[in-house]
Fold this protein.
Amino acid sequence: MTSPPILGPRVARNAALVLCVVLAAPSGQEATWIAAAPDYEWSFPRDHWSHPGYKTEWWYFTGILTATGSPSRRFGYQFTFFRVGLHPERPALESAWATRDLIMGHAAVTDLSTGRHVFSEVLYRTTPLLGQFGTPGDTTIAWSRAPAGTDARWTLRWNGAAFNFSARDDAKGIRFELETTPRKNLVFQGPNGFSRKGTGPTAASQYYSFTRLETSGTITMGGPAVEVVGESWMDKEFGSNQLDAQQVGWDWFSLRLDDGRDVMIYLLRGSDGQVDYGRATVIDSAGNATYLNVEEWRVDPADLWRSPETGAAYPSRWTVELPNEGLLLDVRPVVPAQENVAKLVPDLFYWEGAVDVRNRQGRSVGEGYVELTGYGTRSRPAI
């Protein structure tokens, strides 16, 4: 999360993986973006909507869903909207095309039974015809046109307790319409939702999650729509400068354990490939968060997967140890090939995939998602 001169992806998670466009402010003045702060005054549900003035923001959902009536058929999915700040303020231009933001969407579906993985994307400037971010009080949080050739919208809506969202790409044969209900309350990722990403004064984001969202709806993947149920994880982050200059990417873990605990871990890597910053959160079954520094846990890669499309070599299995929590976990991709390769943004690619979590005896004890950015020679997410 080495920066392309103009465009690059999320995180963090995003994830992630956030496209960042750097333009000079109107009148030749330097743009001033709001930095994340430890004393941010949260207000919900208002903070589920967008935060203009911060450079980057994302709403990020992943989940593992099972076909109703066919428990052997499972799907992994990702849905993300990014708000990409162009200017802190809307340009003073009499034009419907004048905007302060771009909206970028990523959607992916993996058939975990067959290993097929399909990725789709959109990228538009925010205008009434192409896509917009709603304002607090609206039902709609964000929407965009679907990819060219699909007469539809991608949408993210607030349903009063959590989120409903949909994405569709007719050319690639994928579509999902999902609704969610919280099984746990919102949790902050860091004290008061202030999530440090490095030692720099602005290397941080405002960050919260819904770690367990009961999820239902339909998924279409090259055939009839399939009714699905399961659990999802939602991350929301906004900030203006999350990466230090020497950092090239991150590994991010969201794990839901069968004993009711949830684990979030992020590792930020320097240009030498070594971890130079990291944090973790453990949420107990009642929703209480414990924040861990990098010396209180370990993540050791155990295998590699090399992309035949980009040539990037990604870690592909991990030993995750949290001694104070009594956890020693074997985290394995359900499908090795879950790389997302963008066509709209040159050199934007990352691995985002469903994982199985096992204990030291090899028994399944949970599930989740992992995101890997900044691997390969041309992919540093600039956020």
